[in-house]
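Slide 14.
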Amino acid sequence: MPKLTVVLRPMLLLAWAVAASSAVASASPRSWHPRKFARGDGGGFERERGPTPASRAPDRLVELTPSSEDTGLPSCGLHLFRHVSKTGGTTIRFVFDKNTAMGEWEYPLVYGFKREQWDDLVTKFRQAAGQRNEDGPRVLVEVRGNWPERWCAESFDEVLADVHKIKSDFPHCKVTTSILVRDPLKQYLSFYNYYIKREQQNRPREYGTTVADWARSVHDMQVRETLGSMCTPQMRDPPLDPATGERKPVQDECNVDEASLQRYLEILRSFDVVGTTDRFNSFILRLGHVAGLSNPRYRHHNAGSGSRERSSLSEDDSAALDEASRYDRRAYKEAVALASAQEAAWPDFEDNLLDFESRSTDDGYVGGKPPPSPFRFVHADEASASLGREGPREAPPWWLFEGGGRQAIAYINFKPVVLVERQDAERKGLRCVRACNLD
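Slide 15: predicted structure.
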């Protein structure tokens, strides 16, 4: 099997390419995913739930056969990423933002969305996919968790079943899913350093003073958060009664058992791309290939501080983390096996991974510096005042939602945002408020 080669391709969105500057248009992104996407017959529009992950066979290794005919970007695509805390998901979000600002994908939902928002997206996507247009729709979705709304996390089985149903009904669309899993000890320490340590400094009677003080009340975070229905907010709650200093009882529904682990493993095996944070580059390269993202290049974001190594721990902290992550460790072992199998299914994968990494730059871009984005997210009211419109000069016909995704809540920005041509934004001095990190 010949080694995967990297080819340049032009911008596929003709209406937007005309609007973009010639300098930007000439900096066409490289394609890292040499697969020809299968075309087939579309399905009907009726809305019904697909099979639950438990009913799906765990043998869904994605075909990774190179093809010189592949342009990388699917004509119709939907990708769902399950973001679990402190596994590297923020960096994935920035990659999604970048591909959106390139004018190739739509990324419309906040990461903690309501049922009504999800149902609206599913309805619009099914309608558009049923029309079998030559270009679009292409939608990225991130399920993060319990803020600003809890429904998508607590009902993740339903979300995933809807995605599987779309995949079944519209085989001409590239419908895929992904998840990152992290070594439990490192994930616990990253979570502790980011969320808990400051609370212990400010409220020691409620949070204690050591890793063990917190971890003894918080078991198997990755299994619980992925399942979504096992009181995820409790992970950040104070474990101690401030009046007595005694440990608060943990509700039964917060504790993982063998049955909930098996349910988690069934869901894990249903993902098209499974990765581990320790092999993040492998994950991002496979994600780009499988989903059809032309820009998997990235810079690390939200990496946090503080040690995440066992050598930094006291014996008591180390023992507490081992006890707290008993089922998470088994889940991680399965994730490593699944990721390894998916890598092995790609001929010459390690050569391609080394090639991707060799393009990294001294200023921190892994895989090479991506081309400039031809579009920019700005505040809708500023775009209206300065440009006389809330959106680009000519919106792509395959957009499902106005403005290209009118929210930036992941960045604690609650004002509506819209996508406009980069040149127009720079000419009018409009500040970038989303998807700014990879330009």
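Speaker note: The mean pLDDT is 85.
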